[in-house]
Predict the structure of Mutator-like transposase domain-containing protein.
Amino acid sequence: MGKLRLRNNGFRTSKQERKLVSIREGQRKRYCEEDHHQDLASKSVHADHSYAVTSKRFVPDISNIVHEEVLDNDGNNLTPTDDWRVGRRVVELDVIADHLQQCKHCGLPLSLHNTINIKTYGLGSVLKVLCTNKSCGNINAIPTGKQHDHKIWDVNTKLALAAIDLGLGEHQINGLLSILNIPTVSHCMIDNRIREVGDVIESVADESMEEWTEKEKEMTRESDGNDNVTVSVDAAWQRRGSGRSYDSLTGHCSMIGLKTGKVINYKWRSKACRICQRAEISGNIPRVHKCNKNFTGSAKAMEPDMVVDMVKESRSKGANITAIIGDEDTTTIARLRAKVDPTIVKLSDSNHMKNPLEIVCMSSKQTFNSIT
Ligand SMILES: [Zn+2]
Ligand SMILES: [Zn+2]
């Protein structure tokens, strides 16, 4: 045990004192190094994301925050902002080039350097470009892309299509955009565009189903010599537990022709609608909308309901469905015989009878035949 000495900071042994000094020195060094690394990182981040401030030394410049507004004789705001220089945009070069070709007022070519403002609409934007001719002074609106049906940006519709195709939600889309430093999109915009695209996809699906129903009838006639169409039906739920828990709010079912192997009908059932739910919570009457709620029973009861609906519909359109291939569940065929036709035949699908684990084992056995 060392000798205790009275110092300015209290009683410490010389060993404790040395330890304290070395700890402080270490902390100071680490702090400086960290700051140095942060400085380097912040410089590279700042080059892309102007809002990124990762070091205390990197303070944003706010000296130009107050500036006077410049108005022209007609009261138009000509105060230039640098917003359009920040980050990235999705642009159609062809559209921009055509619009910059000439001023709408005097016909002189425009320059992107004279942009005084930018307005963003989802992924599209409109640049306000001042005419190079000082005596003209016209502010030209330059869109960054094409539009359709009363100013709906093509790029936003395409974004919605990509979201549906890739299964992306608003969070994923905005996550991707913010990393790319492209302005993020609003919930309302993406919702409206998804609805627009959804309607088109539905109409394309209807056309395709009509076409393949005819083909299925034709191929059945050629191979069997009659009009008795056999179809395979299978339902799936948004959520389905490993056991037999059916608590999903939505379910969908497709009907595939045996000869063509193509979908000739599909149906979906939903026990909930967001707009109705929101109105119920707030105690208001829901606004007029295309309601998604089309089912009130249990999730398990969706399958027979959808199959009956599909067989009835396809029969009314001329496809004489006389046999269905499905899983071992007997409710569906019982309901079909009671509600549509008592002579409908049920054929069992061997895939449905196999345990999923058995299927995995069989396929892995084929792939890795040395593993037993
Ligand atoms: Zn001009
Ligand atoms: Zn509703």
Observations:
- The first strand starts at residue 5 and ends at 7.
